[in-house]
Sequence to fold (539 residues):
Amino acid sequence: HPPTGKLYEHHIPISPIQRALLAVGSAFTALYNPFRGDMVAALGETTGGIFLSRIRDQMLQDPEGRRILKERPKITSETMQLDKLRQLPDGTFGREYVRFLDDQQVSPDTREPVCFVDSEELAYVMQRYRETHDFYHTLTGLPVTVDGEIALKWFEMMQTGLPMTMLSSFFGPLRLTSAERERLFDVYVPWALENGSNSKSLMNVRWEEWMDRPVEEVQRELRVQPCPQA
Amino acid sequence: MASRTALKQLLNRRAVATWTPVRSAGFSTMAKVLHQHQPPRTPNTSQDPSGTQSTQTHFGFQNIPEDMKETLVRQVFANVATKYDIMNDVMSGGIHRLWKDHFIRTLAPTSGTKLLDVAGGTGDIAMRFLDYCKETHGDNTAQVTVFDINPNMLEVGKERFSKTPYHNTSQVSFMEGNAEKLEHIPDNSMDAYTIAFGIRNVTHIDRVLKEAYRILKPGGRFMCLEFSKVENPLISKVYDVFSFEVIPTMGHIIANDRDSYQYLVESIRKFPPQKEFAKMIKDAGFTIMGQGYEDLTFGVAAIHSGFKL
Fold:
C-alpha cells in the first residue's frame, strides 16, 4: 500500500523497498542499455531526493527562479511556438534552438513524465530540469552524441549535484571508445568543470524569454563559454 | 506514443535521457476506457427489471464491469507476451520450470494422447507434453492443440515451436479462441485438458470448467496448474512482500510495464483457494481423487485434477 496518496497526475507512489530496488535496477539497466529512456528517468527520480530540494531552494533565492516556481511554465512545441521561432533571425537563441530540434528531428513533446518524486513542487523541478535539457545543447554547442551527452552531464553535475548526473559522468565513459574518452577528459570535462561552476544557475533561467537574443549574448550573460570542439 | 527518432538515427547519434520507448496502449489508456464505461450512479427510481448496473467482477484488486474484463486481460497479455518467458524466470527464480515438469509427469500421458492445452500461449506445457511422449514412450503420435485467447502469446509459441522438430508436423497446432466457449471443438474429443496459469484470468471459471468437461472423452483428465494460497503464515508474509514489492518493480525494469505485473500479483490473491477450487471442479461434473489437488512450493502453486467418468 502506497505511503502517500497520488499527488499529481503521473505520480506513482512506491514503498521504500520498491524505491531502493528501482534505483539499483534502473542504474544497471540504464548503463547496459542507455536507450531505455524510462530507466534513465526512473534513476534520476529515485535518486533525486534532497538534491531536488536544494535546487528548489536555489531557485527560491533568485527572482527569475521564483517566478518559474510560481508560474510553472511547461515546455512543449505549443508553448514554445516553434513556428514563430523559425522566423527569428539566424544567430538568435530561438532560431538556433529550433535548428537544433529540426536537425535532430526531435520535439520537446515526448519527455517521460515524472512519476517517482513524492512532492508536487519537486516533481515540477525535475520536470523543468528535463524539459530544459535541449536548451543546454544550444547554449553550449555540445552535440547529441554519447560523449556530448556525457559532457553535458558533467556540466549539470557541477550545477545541480544530482546523483544521476554523477552516475552518468562516472560510468557513462565506460561505454565510449578510447578516442572519445580521451577527448572527453582532455577537452570536455575541464570545460564542464570550469563553466558548470562559474555560470549562473541555469535552473533559474526563464529560457522562454531569451529566445530573440543572440546566442553570444545569452552565453555572456549566463557566463557560459561554448564548448570547444577538439 | 511514437519514438522520437528513427531507429537508425537513434543508434548513430541520439543517446541517453531523451528517448521515449514505443509503448502500446498501456494501463493509463485502459484506465480511461474503464472510467468511460462505469455506469452512472443514479438512484434507481423506476422499476427496471433489466437493471441499470452491469454485473461487476474483479480485475486484480479493482472492481470493473464484467464485460470489460476480457478486454483488459487481453491487453495485459499483449503487453507481456514478448517478455513473458523471461519474466517467469525472474519472478519464480526458475522454479516455474520445475512446476511444469512435475505437472506433465503427473499427467503421465501415454502414446497417442490428444491434448487440448488451454491458455497455452507460449507453449511451455505443450512442448513438455510432446517431449515426454517422445522420451518416455518413443512416441510421435501424441497431438497437442495450443489454445489461447491472445494472438500475441500464440505468436511467441509458434516462434518457439518453429525451432523444434515438431514444426510442421501434425503433433502441434495452434488455435485462437475463448476458453469459456470452445466453439470448434466437438464433444468427447480430447483425452486430456490442461490449463496452466490461465484459469485465474478468465471471467467465468465455471463456464471454462463446463466446457472442459464437454470436450473430454469419458475417462479423460482435466488438469490445472495455477497459483494458489500459501497457508504457512511466515512464508506467506515473505511471499507477499516479494509479490507486491519485487515483482511489479522487476516488471517495470525488465519490461517497462509495472501495471501488468501489478495486475498479475493481485489476480493471484483473488483466485479461490485450493479447496474451494476443487469443489468448483467437482461441481462441473468431474470426479476428484482425495482432496483433488497437490500443493507445490508451500502452496505458491497447486495442481488440481479431475476425471470425467
